[in-house]
Amino acid sequence: MSAAEAVEANGAQEKILNIENVSLSFGGVKAIRDVSFDVMKGEIRAIIGPNGAGKTSMLNVINGFYHPQEGSITYKGETRQDMRPYIAASQGIARTFQNVALFRGMSTLDNIMTGRSLKMNSNLFWHLWRWGPAENEELDHREFVEHIIGFLEIEAIRKTPVGRLPYGLQKRVELGRALAMEPDLLLLDEPMAGMNLEEKEDMSRFVLDVSAQFGTTIALIEHDMGVVMDLSDRVVVLDYGQKIADGTPDEVRKDQNVIDAYLGETH
Amino acid sequence: MLYREAGQFKTNYRADQAVFPIRQDFIGIAALLAVLFLVVPFTFNDYWLNAIMIPTMIFALAAIGLNILTGYAGQLSLGTGGFMGVGAYACYKLVTIFPEVNVLIHILLSGFFAAGVGFLFGLPSLRIKGFYLAVATLASQFFLEWAFGRVAWLYNYNPSGAIEVPNQYLFGVAIAGAPASSVTRYIIVLTIVVALALIASNLVRGRFGRAWMAVRDMDIAAELIGIRLLPTKLLAFSISSYYAGVAGALMVFMWLGAAEVESFDINHSFLILFMVIIGGLGSILGSFLGAAFIWNLPILLRAMPKYFGADINAATVEHVQFMIVGGLIIFFLIVEPNGLARLWSIAKEKLRRWPFPY
Q: For B228, which of A1, A170, B165, B172 is 20 to 30 Å away at the CA?
C-alpha cells in the first residue's frame, strides 16, 4: 500500500503544499504560466515534462529561490505570495540539485553535517574552545548523521572529500545532506540523471525507503519514465511552462496531450 | 611503519573528531611545541629570533586570519594590511589612553577594533563576489592607509607621523619597547599565536567552519540548507580581521618597536595573500608553512653566497633573490596549486601506505 493510499484510507487528505496559479517570467521569457497543483502529505509526486518545460523553475519557486510574479504558494496551511530560501529551509523543505551541488572541498561527513546547520545553535563562545555545549552538540549531530550514512550505505566514504567521489555516490551524498535536514518535503531534481541501471535501482530504493521509513513527502523531477511511473503516486506534466496533465501514472500515460508533448505533434 | 593509523581504533565519536585523530600527529605537534617553547629561546641568538622566528609567527597569524576569510569562507580580500594597521593603531591608542593596563591585554583587545572595521568593509560582500569584492576590499585598504597618514589623532600628533612603542613591564620584566629582550618577546608572540591558531582550528572544524566552507563551495546550496549568507560572511570578515588586527599589534609592539603608514600598505596585503596561496587555501597548517616559506626564503637566499664563500655584491644578490623567489613561487604553483599544506598531506598519505605504492 503506497503512502497516498494510506492517507486516503484514513479518509484525511492533507495538502502539505498547494501551488495556485503561479506564473514566473524572466524578462520576456515566460518560464511558468498559470500552473496549479498540490502535493499531499506523505505521497511521492513526480513533475515531468520535456526539456525547458519549467520543472526546475517550479522547484526553485517552491523553495524560494525564484519569486513568481503571480499566484500563491500554500505550505503547511500558510499562504504566501512567494517563499524565501531561509523560510523554506527552516520550515522543512530540502532539495537536491540537477547538477550535483555538493560542497566539493568538504568530506562526505562534513557535507551531511552541514545539512544539520539549522538544528545547531550552540554559540560562538563555546565553539572557540570546542568545549561544553559546542562539543556535545557536534557529537549529538554526528550520531544522527551516522544514521543517515548507514541508511544510504556510504560508511566507507565518510571521510573522503566529495570532489573525489564518482558521480553516483555524489548524488547519494547529496540526498544524505538533504535528509540531514529532516525535511517534511523533499524536492529531488533529477535524482537519477546520468546513472546506470544499477545506480538507478539503488536510488529508487532509497527514495521509496525515505518515503516509507521517514514518512517524508517527496516531489521529484525525473526523465526516466520507467522510474517515474513505478515510484510516484501522482504525476504532474508540464510543457512550455503550462500544466498539460495531472493524475496517477496510468492516467497520465494515456493522456493525449502528454503523448503529443513527448512524441511531438505537427502544429 | 612509523606513521600508520592501523591499530588505533576509535570507539566513540569524540575520539574520532579530535584535532589529531592519528597518534603520531599528536606526538609530532607536541614535540614541535616543546622545541619551540623550551629549546628555541635558549639556543637561538637575537638575530635568529628577531629576523626569523618572531616575524614568521606574526605573519603566520595574519595568514591564518586571511585564510579564514579567503581560504575557508571564499571571500577574496586585499585589505589585510589595512586591518593589521587598525590593530596596531588601536593598540597604540589604547596604550596611551590607558597606560596602567597591561599591554598584552591591549594587544588582544585591539583585534576587536580591527574586527569592527572588517565587519563594516565586509558589508558589500552580500552583493559583490570574487574579483569585484577584492576591489571593494582594496578600497578599504586605501581608505585605511589614508586615515593612518592623515588623521593625526591616531599617531598622537607625533611630528614624524610614526607610532612608537613605550616601555612596558609585567612583574618587573620588560615586555615591550627597547628594554624588552628578544627571548621575552618571542615567548609572548609564540604563546599568542599558538593559542589563536588552536582557536582557529576549533572554529573551522565546528558548525561555523562548515558554514563558511559551504558558502565558499556552493553558496546557493548553502542558502537553501538554511545558512544565512550575510551573517556567515560578516562573521568570517570580523574574525579574520581580529586575527589580522592582533597580528598588526604584535608586529609593532613585539617586533618593530615603531611603525608608520608604510608598515601597513598594500604590499603587506599582497604578501599575506601570497603566503595564504603558497601555504594552502583552507588550511591552518598551510598558513604557517606559507608564512615561513615567503618570509624566510629571501633571508636564506641572501645568506647563501656568504656560506659558499662567493663574493657577490649586495645589489646582485638582491636581484638574483627576487628572480629566484619569483621562480620558486611559480614552480610551486605549477607543481601543487593547492599549496604546501596539500604537499604535506600527500606526503602523509604516501607514508601511511609505505612501502606499498597504493
A: A170
Tell me what ipTM this predicted complex has: 0.89
Residues A193 and A118 in one domain: no
Chunked mean pLDDT (size 10), chain A, 267 residues? 50 81 90 93 92 90 92 91 91 92 93 92 86 89 94 92 91 95 94 89 94 93 89 92 91 88 69
Condensed to tens digits (0 to 9), the pLDDT of residues A54-75 reads: 899 999 999 899 999 999 999 9
In whole angstroms, what is the distance from residue A155 CA to residue A41 CA? 31
Q: What is the dihedral of CA A109, A113, A115, A121, to 10 degrees?
A: -170
Residue type, B355: P
Looking at A135, A164, A182, the residue that finishes a domain is A182
Grouping H, G, I as helix, E, B as strand and the rest as coil, residue A187 is strand
Is B35 touching A (CB cutoff 8 A)?
A: no
The answer to whether the predicted template modeling score (pTM) of the entire model surpasses 0.80 is yes
Determine, yes or no, domain membership for A41. yes
Written as nine digits, the cell of B223 is 542558502
- Which CATH number is A3's domain given? 3.40.50.300
Nearest CB partner across the interface for B217, out of A65, A103, A128: A103
Q: Say whether the peptide bond before residue B355 is cis (omega within 30 degrees of 0).
A: yes
By residue range, what is the domain housing residue A1? 1-92+183-267
What residues of chain B lie within 8 A of the CB of A122, using their CB?
Answer: 207
pLDDT one-digit tens code per residue, A114-134:
999 899 888 888 888 888 888
Contacts of B157 (CB under 8 A, 6+ apart): none
Question: In this structure, how many other beta carbons lie within 10 angstroms of the beta carbon of residue B19?
Answer: 13
Same domain, A189 and A126: no
Residues A87 and A4 in one domain: yes
Q: How far apart are CA A207 and CA B144, in angstroms?
A: 55
Domain termination residue (choose one: A182, A206, A238): A182
H-assigned helices in chain B = 13-16, 23-34, 40-43, 46-48, 54-66, 80-97, 103-122, 130-150, 182-205, 207-217, 219-225, 229-250, 266-279, 284-308, 314-335, 340-353
Q: Which fold is adopted by the domain B51-353?
A: ABC transporter involved in vitamin B12 uptake, BtuC (1.10.3470)
Which of B163, B186, B162, B165 has its CA nearest to residue B176?
B165
Q: Is A197 exposed, middle or buried (0-12, 13-18, 19+ CB in 10 A)?
A: exposed
Which of B210, B216, B224 is nearest residue A113 as measured by Cβ atoms?
B210
Query: A103 and B227: CB-CB below 8 Å?
Result: no
Rg (CA), chain B: 21
Q: What is the domain count for chain A?
A: 2
Q: Does A150 touch chain B (CB under 8 A)?
A: no
The answer to whether residue A246 is domain-embedded is yes
Quick one: CA dihedral B135, B140, B143, B149, positive or negative?
negative
Instruction: Tell me how far apart the alpha carbons of residues A38 and A182 are, in angstroms, rounded to a whole number.
Output: 21
What residue type is A214 in one-letter code? F
